[in-house]
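ARCHIVE CARD
Drawer: 12
Card no.: 0347
Subject: one protein chain, sequence and derived structure
Cross-reference: see card 0346
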Amino acid sequence: MNRGYAGFYGEHYLRSSYEYAYAKYLDYHDIPWSYEDTNFDVGFKTYKPDFFFYDKDGKLEKIV
């Protein structure tokens, strides 16, 4: 299901207006982020979280 906007924001293809708004919010507040870095196998399917946040040493801090 598409929630309004789907298209490129910078180098990332975002699939919904929620993702677009969140990416713009993060950029506005100078919060570094990456998008859909990793797939996770949860047994019965795979899951690809949208936003990943890393510390200054490259260690994963948070997934949204």
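Annotation on reverse: Helices lie at 17-28. The two ends are 19 Å apart (CA to CA).
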